[in-house]
Amino acid sequence: FHLPEEKRQKLLAAARHEFARTSYADASINRMIREAGIPRGSFYMYFADKEELFRYLTEEYAQRLVGLMERFLKEKMEICSRRLSGCLILHWTAAGNRRLMRPLGI
């Protein structure tokens, strides 16, 4: 992108809004650039057409989803790891001190 960051964000926000508001077939570049407040020529400097813009937004969305899934899985793995560690410590403690563990029913 060669647009100033503010204009870039406005264009992408307008495109997201347009694609969310209507079907792909009915989405309008005119409405996007009008909402973003940028000239038509600026749009075509960065995207060949509506399809290229849609692919860009789809890839951006997919990357965000992958990041969210990675964080989610990492958190779940950390929880599982802590639980497994706790179980192993309890098992090893019980195996080494059966007499101390009897009152706990272990």
> How would you classify the quaternary structure?
single chain
* Low-confidence segments: none
Could you tell me the strand content as a percent range? under 5%
Distance between the termini: 64 Å
Order of helices and strands: HHHHH
Shape: rod-shaped
**What is the tally of beta strands?**
0
Key terms:
106 residues, mainly alpha
Walk me through what this model shows:
The protein is mainly alpha-helical and 106 residues long. Helices cover 78% and strands 0% of the residues. The chain has five helices and no strands. Helix 1 packs across helix 2. The radius of gyration is 27 Å and the shape is rod-shaped. The mean pLDDT is 84.
Give a concise summary:
Helices cover 78% and strands 0% of the residues. It is mainly α and 106 residues long.
Tell me the layout of helices and strands.
Blueprint lengths: L4 H17 L7 H8 L3 H7 L3 H47 L1 H4 L5
